[in-house]
Amino acid sequence: MNESTVTMFVFLDFSCSRSAQFILLTLVMTCYITILLGNTLIILTVWTESRLFQCPMYLFLANLSLLDMSLGSIASPKLVTDLLNSGGTISFGGCMAQICSQHFFGGSEAFLLTVMAYDRYVAICHPLRYTTIMNQQCCFSILIFCWIGGLIHGIVQVVVMAPLPYCGANVLDNFYCDIPQVIKLACSETYADEIVLIVSNGLAAVPSFLLLLVSYATILAAICSRFGKGGSKALSTCSSHLMVVGLFYGPIFFVYMKPSSNSQVDKMASVFYMVVTPALNPLIYTLRNQEVKGAMGKLKNNCRRLLFPQRK
Q1: Dihedral Cα 171, 177, 181, 187, nearest 10 deg
Q2: Radius of gyration of the chain (CA)
Q3: Is the pLDDT assigned to residue 156 strictly greater than 90?
Q4: What is the rounded distance in angstroms from the CA atom of residue 148 to the CA atom of residue 285?
Q5: Cβ–Cβ < 8 Å for 72, 278
Q6: Edge to edge, what strands does the sheet with 8-11 contain?
Q7: What does the alpha-carbon distance between residue 15 and residue 80 come to, in Å, rounded to a whole number?
Q8: Do the beta carbons of residue 3 and residue 187 sit within 8 Å?
Q9: How far is residue 208 CA from its own chain's centroid?
Q10: Distance CA 91, CA 8 (A)
């Protein structure tokens, strides 16, 4: 009762030279600008092109861009400020908001990536039934499930974390509020709370990842057995999504599944997950998808005619 309650947390800066921090600052700023511009461009392209908007794959892609833009905005602006100031702080409420937002958008994206894998499975393995199974009503219902599932997942994290007593130590060796580090600062026994969090995160991540593996294993088997040498074209439609899945789950497994821990390496992996991946996703889809590139060219021409109308 005599211990003071923590009202804010302190972030440690990256233990590297000023020149290295300047390079990191430039990288983060470049990635964040790319996150905002790239994902906004994809959303506008899908929204304004009715042919793409009515296609489930591109409707899911627009939602993925919205999630990437939201996930990238959780820590990137503050990270830029903290790199300039060689460290920073965050209020207790701001820390809980970061935790909730990260797991809300991250959980929604995990569910959405699974749905996108199922969409490719239906398109390749059951092409004649594709429009019947993946009709627009079904797609919107699936998207609502993804967002609500992510929201519930995020709320569970805060419901467990916020009531814990935090007193004394308030230093986090990271650039954002990460649950494993924050929960270590609690002044009470947290074993039961950690079990609840592990189960919650496991229910959100493990089934989604397993369904991803099953979907693409089935797709690969179907391509090899039915399409033969012509299967390369069918597989190319899935390659962009597979790259995004690898970029999303790779840093997560690296930070949370490996036995040893190196704070600087973990922080760089977190930078990749929170900042770099949301910037790479729009580049992957736009550079490898001719339909999206064509629709973007059409959008550019329409904007040019709107801004600079030709005089008669």
Answers
A1: 70
A2: 22
A3: yes
A4: 25
A5: yes
A6: 88-91, 8-11, 171-172
A7: 16
A8: yes
A9: 14
A10: 4
CA 285, distance to chain mean position in Å, is: 15
In this structure, the number of other CB atoms found within 10 A of the CB of residue 102 comes to 22
Enter the pTM of the model. 0.88
**Under 8 Å CB-to-CB from 15, ≥6 apart: which residues?**
264
The phi and psi torsions of 174 (rounded to 5 degrees) equal -160, 180
Report the interhelical angle of 277-288 vs 56-85 (nearest 10°).
140
User: pLDDT tens digits, residue range 30-83?
Assistant: 999 999 998 998 998 888 888 888 889 889 999 999 999 999 999 899 988 888
Residue 258 has pLDDT above 70, yes or no: no
Question: 252 CB contacts (<8 Å, ≥6 apart)?
Answer: 205, 273
CA dihedral 251, 254, 260, 264 (to 10 degrees): -20
Domains of the chain, each with CATH number or no CATH: 8-296 (1.20.1070.10)
271 in Cβ contact with 82 (< 8 Å): no
176 phi, psi to nearest 5 deg: -150, 170
- E strand intervals along 120-179: 171-172
- Given a cut of 60, whether residue 261 has pLDDT beyond it is no
Given a contact cutoff of 8 angstroms between Cβ atoms, the answer to whether 69 and 35 are in contact is yes
For the chain, give the mean pLDDT.
84
**Within its chain, how far is the Cα of 22 from the centroid?**
25
The helix/strand/coil state of 15 is coil
**Residue carrying structure tokens 């001719």:** 290
Q: How far apart are CA 67 and CA 241, in angstroms?
A: 15
Distance of CA 77 to the CA centre of its chain: 16
